[in-house]
Each structure stands twice: as C-alpha cells, then as structure tokens.
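Re: Re: token formats

Sure, here are both.
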Amino acid sequence: MSKKSVLIITILALIVTLSITYVSCGPSEPSEFVTYIDEAVGFSIEYPDGWHIETHKESSDVKVSIWEKEFGLNPVCIMVAKYAASGHSLESFSEFQIGVLPDIAEDYVPISTEEFTINGIPAIKHIHTSTISPTTYKSVRVYLLSNGTGWILGFNSPKKSFDSYKSTFNISLNSFSLLE
C-alpha cells in the first residue's frame, strides 16, 4: 500500500471518528433527576441533576428558573411562575397569557394549543417559537389554575435542538406537583 493510500485511509478514519463523536455529543437523556421543592410557594418539580437553579425574589411572578448551563449562549431552561388569578377560568387565564406573547416575544409564531391534565389538574399546553436575536427558540408553556392561583410551566430550547430535550421536558412536566 502506498503512503498516499495510507494517508487517505487515515484521514477518512479520522473524519468518521470525528463525525461519530460530534453526533453523540448532543444532549442526551440525563441519567438522574432531582426534585426541587418550594414549600413557601407550594410546588415541586423534577429537573436533571447538575442543572443550575435560580430562585427569584418574592415580588417576581417567576419563582424558579432551572438552566442546563450556568453560563453560555442559547440556554435551555425550565421555569415555574405563579400568578394571582382569582375570577379566572383556566381558559381565560391561558388566553390572557398567550395573548401577551406576541407583545413580548420577537417573531412569535404559535404552533399548537391543547388541553390535558397534570396529576389530575386540568391544563392547557401552548407551543410556539420566538426569536431572541439571533436565536430562534421553541417554547412550551403549560397553564394550570388551582384555587384562584395560575401557574405557568415553561420549557425553552433553541429550536434546532428542541427535539433532543423533549424527554427531559416531559419528565419535568409530568413531575410537577402542587403541595398541600
């Protein structure tokens, strides 16, 4: 075998190795989830072990943000917010919240809205895209209403990697529980 042939085979092997490494380096299903419990606010939610917690001041509607990375571009996030919503139905609460998205999200595009339940609580799931320059995000907002309190569970990822986080988001979503 000539030196040129050996060099070509070596380069091809390196390209294949790098391609396999690149494909397998994307987000994968976390091996363990831990539970965030906020007894004062009244909820718990599971999130991947190693993600970073950011709690918010009492006056903020957002109670916790859970970030895949502590720092970096294009963050992936799980968020829980709590609102006073007495006098609202689940439908009116979610319609109001969905209605403000075009005003606060650049290039807002709705994808779907559906009803379902989380741990026996009726909920409405709204999926949309929006841009935070220059990245387009795909987001899921889940609206719940319990005893005059509105809850929003948010799951955000850059659109191009959203599907690789679906399982993580679903585990967190299905783990959400109101404390009594």
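Second one below.
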Amino acid sequence: MSRKKLEADFPPLSELISLKRKKALITGSGAGIGKAIAYRFAEAGADLELVDVNEKSLASVKKRA
C-alpha cells in the first residue's frame, strides 16, 4: 500500500486532538513507527524531543517534524 493511500485514510491528528503545550519524548524516531508518531504528534502541535541511534535519519525527521 502506498504512503499517499495511507495518508488519505487518516484525518490529520490535529482534527482529532490537540497536543499543544504537551511534551513528548519519542525514541526510535528516525524510522518506522517512531517516525510516523513524530510526524503525527508534530502536526497536532506537541513539543517534541526526538531520539534515535541513526543520526542521519534522525536529522531528516527533525527537519520535517
């Protein structure tokens, strides 16, 4: 299943819940589930602290989130 198809199936998290003034520590945020959580929490307004052992992939996620 394509990523665009998956994104079309889910409404923006900000329409469901607000995470403004909330803090989240997301481990493994450079790839996979951690990356997806980071993007969704960022769109809902959370203040994020992202952590991953792969610094290169983590840096690309931090730019987008």
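The chain has four helices and two strands. The chain has one domain: 3-64.
- S.
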